[in-house]
Specification:
Layout (H helix, E strand, L loop, with lengths): L1 E5 L2 H5 L2 H8 L11 H14 L5 E8 L6 E11 L5 E5 L12 E2 L4 H12 L9 E8 L3 H12 L3 E9 L2 E3 L4 H6 L3 H15 L5 E5 L6 H12 L3 H6 L2 H17 L2 E8 L2 E11 L2 E9 L8 H15 L4 E3 L6 H5 L6 E8 L22
Helix pairs in contact: 3-10, 4-5, 7-11, 8-10
Length: 362
């Protein structure tokens, strides 16, 4: 396999169509691996999460002019333990699911060639591959462990956050019948109460590009009413989110939904409608309307919308908040994988970095 290193944003941007075409057939196919998302992430280093880093995307082809077979979207930095590390683009806090990109049938060959390439002179002096937020079902985990141990590297796996999700049935009534009776009653009661409120309650999904910037600003204002989220929303993080959301909208997979009371925005969900899944990324609520439980009401509408349009999964992503399970979610986890070889080349020191902030889930 022929490997190439991409170290500049210009080179990365040229790969867009090829990248997303391969991703559509990848063993791991999640929105956080989309070319436009990771390009936006790199421009701000995750909204300021990383202070310094070196881009190191490794691509694999069967031969120099052949089709793209695999992508390891990496960057070189010092990790949380101050070790020279190759990490996945998108790490750590604002990208829920990460992985390498390759078809299932090509993944083992790509990873084997990748480890060989990263042990050669073209790679920086890393001591650990430090990969966060791989789903525990990822094919990469088993293959990487076997290949690493075969090379004499150490391999460790650490369970991280819970990531509840709802497998969606074919109709709304079947969904309601499948959840706890008390919760089913609560969803129906709160949705009826919103409909019967003295002021009109209306929900919608943003569709017009002319409204997008104004709607993003409105969402950020709602989000910032939570003190923790307000602290999270630094200027750099706001820039990151706006860039990523515009890119997702242009690519057709942004779902920004609001519920209004008497024409005032009362609650919102920021989701991705991608690959027959709804991926719930964040939310905002006007505290004046807290007693109406409009976050729950809007969530109910969005689940019904997803079912009616044939979506297969409603993924709450990272965070084990109680309401996710009350809506019928099944648990799973993401993991952190570390592959260590314990060798450092002092001629190529790792850049310094600083980790700050967190992605506060919906």
């Amino acid at each position: 396999m022929h490997f190439t290193v991409i170290q500049t944003l210009t080179e990365m941007e040229l790969l867009g169509d090829e990248w997303n075409t391969l991703l559509s057939n990848s063993a791991s196919h999640v929105p956080f691996l989309r070319h436009e998302y990771l390009t936006a992430w790199w421009k701000t280093l995750g909204g300021g999460e990383w202070k310094q880093a070196e881009l190191l995307i490794v691509t694999g082809r069967i031969d120099a002019g052949g089709p793209l077979v695999g992508i390891a979207p990496l960057f070189f930095t010092l990790n949380k333990e101050n070790k020279p590390a190759l990490m996945l683009l998108g790490s750590i806090e604002i990208s829920d699911y990460l992985d390498v990109i390759a078809k299932p049938e090509d993944l083992a060959q790509f990873l084997e060639g990748l480890l060989e390439f990263l042990n050669g002179p073209a790679a920086p002096a890393w001591s650990v591959l430090d990969w966060h937020n791989l789903l525990e079902s990822s094919l990469t985990l088993t293959i990487l462990e076997e290949l690493s141990l075969r090379r004499g590297y150490s391999f460790s796996k650490e369970l991280l956050q819970h990531c509840p999700y709802i497998p969606l049935p074919g109709d709304w009534q079947s969904y309601l019948a499948g959840i706890d009776k008390k919760q089913r009653h609560e969803i129906r009661r709160k949705m009826r109460r919103a409909l019967d409120f003295e002021k009109p309650v209306h929900w919608y999904i943003v569709e017009e590009v002319a409204d997008l910037d104004e709607e993003i600003e409105a969402f950020l204002r709602l989000m910032a009413q939570d003190p923790q989220k307000d602290k999270f929303l630094s200027e750099m993080m706001r820039m990151q989110m706006k860039t990523a959301l515009r890119a997702a909208f242009q690519a057709g997979w942004l779902q920004l939904a609001f519920i209004e009371v008497g024409g005032e925005k009362a609650a919102a969900y920021l989701n991705f409608d991608y690959g027959d899944h709804i991926w719930v990324y964040n939310s905002g609520l006007d505290v004046r309307f807290r007693d109406l439980s409009l976050g729950w009401v809007l969530l109910g509408y969005l689940i019904q919308w997803a079912i009616d349009r044939g979506r297969h999964c409603f993924d709450f992503m990272r965070g084990d908040e109680d309401y996710k399970y009350r809506f019928g979610a099944i648990d799973r986890r993401v993991v952190r994988v570390q592959v260590s070889r314990g060798r450092i080349n002092p001629k190529h020191p790792a850049p310094q970095n600083h980790i700050a902030g967190m992605r506060l889930g919906a």
